Amino acid sequence: MLKIHNTLARAKQDFVPMEPGKVRMYVCGMTVYDYCHLGHARVLVVFDMIVRWLKAEGFDVTYVRNITDIDDKIIKRAAENGEPIDALTGRFIAAMDQDAAALGVVKPDFEPRATQYVPQMIAMIQALIDKGLAYVAGKAPKGVSGSSRIENPDEAGSDVCYSVHDFAGYGKLSGKSLDDLRAGERVEVADGKRDPLDFVLWKSAKPGEPAWDSPWGPGRPGWHIECSAMGDDLLGERFDIHGGGADLQFPHHENEIAQSEGVHGHQHVNYWIHNGFVRVDNEKMSKSLGNFFTIREVLEKYDPEVVRFFILRAHYRSPLNYSDQHLDDAKGALTRLYTALKNVPPSPLTPPPPGGEGDQSSLSRRRGRDGEGEIDWNNPFAAAFKAAMDDDFATPEAIAALFDLASEVNRTNDPERAGLLRALGGVLGLLQRDPVDFLQGGAEEGGFTLENIEQLIADRVAAKKAKNYAEADRIRKELSDAGIILEDTPQGTVWRRA
RNA sequence: GGCGCGAUAGCAAAGCGGUUAUGCAGAGGACUGCAAAUCCUUCCAGGGCGGUUCGACUCCGCCUCGCGCCUCCA
Fold first, then answer.
1. pLDDT tens digits for A91-131?
2. What are the sequence ranges of the domains in chain A?
3. In this predicted complex, what is the ipTM?
4. What is d(CA A453, CA A124) in angstroms, rounded to the nearest whole number?
5. Contact between the CB of A73 and strand B at under 7 Å
6. What was the pLDDT predicted at A443?
């Protein structure tokens, strides 16, 4: 039985989908005005892992990950660049797709963009107004002081705000009460808000800003409403899982609940999943702190699979400290797994013994990889892996099972066990490459070409044959100084990068 | 100030009320012309103070320290 830590319950719960065999999941994606950093990489990889595991469990998964392609920061950045907004967002969506693909992230079933859902958002805002949960904040800005606001009310649109105290459940996701929030008041009192905690559903446009027509004049949607509208449209008024970074818990997801449940009058999401932050020097990696590393920066130095492995080696809810040392560490660990697969070429999986009906799940029917066979989940290593994954996606423990299996592979030289290792790695989106490619890949240091290396190895073999060990060792040293390690095996000399 | 999370060996990171987590690093051994890889053995743990218990790293309380959210943020 799969257990999921549900933020709403602040506890692990048995996962029971609304519709047997089906999972509908929504994850908050990126605001596309800059390159993705490692924090974004974590969301991408973590929820990709979750989708893969749900599928491995036999669920039919519908996965939605949205793209925020209109907001204040996008408008600002486009203006700075002197670039049309859709050019800017198009550029960074393409970059995000590249980064995600490099990290082995499978495309979601839907990637809706906020700008494609403005009519739905307007309808939802209207419904909230009709229900008395939202109000038009008025045209005239309070305390006008030479602002750039439009002075003629006939041309200006109005803001629409959500009236937080009219929604009874406000705070249930983040565990905050309205009183607590007010006690720690840090919210700017915007023009026209009845309560400082009220948030904007519709933002009136200033001259020159992109705008959509609405019953409240030209403007654009507030941030939170897009997720309510897109989730509704693609997954229904109520769905199984909603995910995102822990920083979205409040206010974004709290506000999303207020909107969706406000409109529909019933529960919006059954399981909320929030992943922990990536940190640098023990601090959250974030745009505002400026301490971020973009995915592409990191990929210049590290193999993308190492980065994926690095992310999966920590539990998704734990903080993940980023540093070169940690990446190097991850690389070394992944090298051990690939080394086992290099030394013992995996054979295709054989079907599990027939009649193992005690296994109730559909897992045993799952294809291992490319139709090459099936994982036998009754195998002790596979069972340990599954138990870990079923316990709130405990990838560190699942990966530990992989290492145990790798030791077994090394000990027994059993191609079937190697096949299982590769198949289990595949469930996490790992270990699918030719091991030699992985081991020889990476930074091209030392200026040695493939031909150079092959030639030096041939020279060394000749020297060895002539029992000229001094020359053989000199060549070994020359290559090792360039980060290339030689291994003399019964099958001949092979090399890999350090 | 309010709310929440965490503290594990040299580094990283898990589970678990009593039995080796795991990876890297270290030590010894096997193997090797030398190495590497691999295997075997092994050193190094659970912030502090109390409590519960036959027994706590694991449960409870307090303290200290760190982090996060309360403002845009994955």
1. 999 999 999 999 999 999 999 999 999 999 999 999 999 99
2. 3-275, 319-438, 444-497
3. 0.96
4. 64
5. yes
6. 54
Report whether A43 contacts A23 (CB < 8 A): no
- Which nucleotide's C1' atom has the smallest distance to the CA of A329? B24
Strand B contact nucleotides, protein CB < 7 Å: 1-5, 11-15, 21-25, 32-40, 66-74
Q: Given CATH 3.40.710.10, say whether it is the number of domain A319-438.
A: no
Residues A40/A82, Cβ–Cβ less than 8 Å: no
First to last CA, chain A: 41
A424-472: pLDDT as tens digits: 999 999 999 999 999 998 655 557 888 899 999 999 999 999 999 999 9
- What are the pLDDT digits (tens) for A267-322? 999 999 999 999 999 999 998 889 999 999 999 999 999 999 999 999 999 999 99
SS3 A220: strand
> What is the amino acid identity at position A433?
R
Six-digit token string for A494: 């092979």
> How many Å apart are A187 CA and B14 C1'?
40
CA distance A112 to A104: 21
Nearest to A286 by CA among A37, A494, A19, A479: A37
CATH superfamily of A3-275: HUPs (3.40.50.620)
Paired residues of A284 in beta bridges: A279
* CA atoms lying within 13 Å on the CB side of residue A330: 23
- Asked whether the beta carbons of A484 and A498 are under 8 A apart, the reply is yes
Residues of chain A with pLDDT under 50: 140-154, 355-362, 364-371
What is the Cβ-side half-sphere exposure of residue A375, based on CA atoms within 13 angstroms? Answer: 27
- Which nucleotide across the nucleic acid strands is nearest to A180, CA versus C1'? B2
Phi, psi of A451 (to 5 degrees): -65, -45
Please name the residues in contact with A346: beta carbons below 8 A apart, sequence gap of 6 or more: A415, A418, A419, A421, A422
Is residue A495 within 8 Å of residue A457, measured between CB atoms?
yes
